[in-house]
Amino acid sequence: MFFDTDCGGVVHNIAYLRFVEIARTLLAEKLGLSLVEMTETQKYPVVVRSEIDYRRAARLGDKLQVEGWLDQLQRVRFWCGFKITRPNDGALIAQCRQTLALIQMPAAKLLSLPPEWDKYRDTAQELA
Fold first, then answer.
1. Which residue among 40, 66, 77, 126 is the one 20 to 30 A from 88 at the CA level?
2. Phi-psi region of 40 (alpha: psi -120 to 50; beta: other; left: phi over 0)
3. DSSP for residue 113
4. 17-41 burial code (b ≥16 CB/10 A, e <16)
5. Residue 4: Cβ within 10 Å count
6. Sign of the dihedral through C-alpha 101, 104, 107, 111
7. 120: how many CB neighbours lie within 10 A of its CB?
8. Over the stretch 22-76, which tens digit does the pLDDT of each residue have?
């Protein structure tokens, strides 16, 4: 989109985090955390840390593909990985890894990960 670029037609670095946000929302649905369910239970995954490496510039008009996967699980934290590529030439545009935790609102109480996520501990990458 034009609003994602600067006057030279290069995608802004902040736009990639929005792309990751969309992919993370879709991944949350695969994990059983739909937006409706989060609103009803007031349990939300929150980003604790984001690391992003920009590899190549994307330009206005580029079609990009964003892949997201569950990378690692601990008792109260989990990590998601993301890769943004340009399919027409296979270029790796950016890679991102985020640390997240589940909280219960409105108190912002830290929660243990749901027991049903245990099935993902050995197969985290398969959710991609």
1. 126
2. alpha
3. P
4. bebbeebbeebbeebebeeeebeee
5. 16
6. negative
7. 18
8. 999 999 998 888 889 889 999 999 999 999 999 999 999 999 999 999 888 988 9
